[in-house]
Amino acid sequence: MADTKSFNMVSLIRKKREKLELTTEEIRYMIAEYTRDVIPDYQMSAMLMAIYLNGLTDRESSDLTYAMLHSGIVIDLSHIPGIKVDKHSTGGVGDKLSLILAPIVAACGVPVPMISGRGLGHSGGTLDKLESIPGFNVNLDLDTYAKVLAEHNLVLIGQTEEIAPADKRMYALRDVTSTVECIPLIAGSIMSKKLAEGIDALVLDVKCGSGAFMKTQEAALQLAQKLVSIGEHFGKRTVGYITNMDQPLGHAIGNWLEVRECIDALQGRGEKNMMEVTLLLSGTMIWLGGKANSVDEGIEMSVESINNGTAFQKFVDICKVQGGDTKYLLNPDLYPPAKHIVDVLSSKDGFIGAINSFEIGMTGVELGAGRIRKEDIIDPAAGIEIIKKHSEKVRNGETIARIYTNNTALIDSSVERILGAIEILSKRPDDIKMVSHKVDREGIQLIV
Hints:
The N and C termini lie far apart (45 Å). The protein folds into three domains: 47 residues, Transferase, Pyrimidine Nucleoside Phosphorylase, Chain A, domain 3 (Up-down Bundle), CATH 1.20.970; 258 residues, Pyrimidine Nucleoside Phosphorylase, Chain A, domain 2; 89 residues, Aldehyde Oxidoreductase, domain 3 (Alpha-Beta Complex). It contains 17 helices and 14 strands.
């Protein structure tokens, strides 16, 4: 970032504390000097709390994103033909959609430069799922990143040290200062990383419900609007959808279990609700990438790429290119299973009602499928399979879920926790609506 005018950080904290707007120069100074270790953590913590309490305007949010984006390298992919499109999800339980839609979109001719994150807390991470495939390397350098994308229309890596370093430092502070749940800060964090990838357009999956970061539709819409506003400000066509996370996506929760479900989905055996969201997102990406005249046509192309095998082949190809052992994709039964596989049985007749996705996600973490702390080691074979989904009929003694773990000490408590997280009703509940709203530069549109 270019040299900026010097300001007094104490004065900037006071200004935001008093609910006044920071100027573009003040924001750029603050981020540049914090990245250079001139501004200490305790002052940035005070600023983050002031922002948490008083918010940012759309202009301030865009300026913050710009400053965080330019605290590191902004990748230039202009030499690669085509409109580069990525997708970002705000995270949820069983959210494996990136591993399904990225090969679909790439197989339809749209370059997908995807830089993903790891799971922390109740939600899983794309990188952890990919690394459950033996040998899969998500740590490519940026030159290799661009080369693989140019050759295969797809690349799947993690955030490097060069990309938005200010965001990495600020997120660590937010985590320990109780300032995570702040829409302008969430938006700046997401968009600074996404814009650094070298994309031309972005599709957003903003999740809402018990397993989502945003619990209410109102909060999800606010975040989606902020993300779209920032994306469009930077000249990137941005479309967001509000999607349901009141039950896990698909059946599998856990890294290899989710990869296996992705294999099934790419071979035409995907769970209905999961594929509804996946195909909407992939269809939108294909449309934004200029390969379809409408989202509906993009959805049709997505389905065809599954039916003709090109989407699954793309997944196999990118796995091979990035060092993964493709035999497990071609024959998933070869993968070493967890030592203990335990059925969770219904205690009565009825219909599956509410499924507390947060509780299911945290149970999966306890079984070894996730991490509470960054240093925790993940067991790729651990996890949960939800056998009976929302509104499905169940009999007393019938299996409603299945536990996979290598730790016997966790079985009884996990069974109890899962039973407590799945409601069984006497009457069949209404179906869950998977997508409620579309948000783009035209505003908010209700999906009926």
